[in-house]
Amino acid sequence: MTELIIVGAEKLNLWKTQGYLSIYHYAEKQNLPLHYDFLEDLAQYPDEQLQRQIPTLILHGINDEVIPIQASQNYLKTRPWVRLIELNSDHGLENVLDVIWQEIRDFLG
User: pTM (2 decimals)?
Assistant: First the structure.
């Protein structure tokens, strides 16, 4: 499970017991509580079942410290309809906003 890698087994158990985990929200620039139900909902959507061929654009920072770029690269491997743009940025992508908007415009045509 990806969440075990991100938070570790002990923290995951604490999250489940307490109901909430404080997570840094990049847009809000502060820690916010994330309910454990988030993981339970996520479990309903196994990655191998996400195969609907919908044109998809992923913009991912190669220096992302929250979700490794490898996660998007792996997702792309079995989904030829997905376009991945690897950006020289971190999880917040704040230094590449102009590039992001251009890529979105190009993708939407």
Answer: 0.76
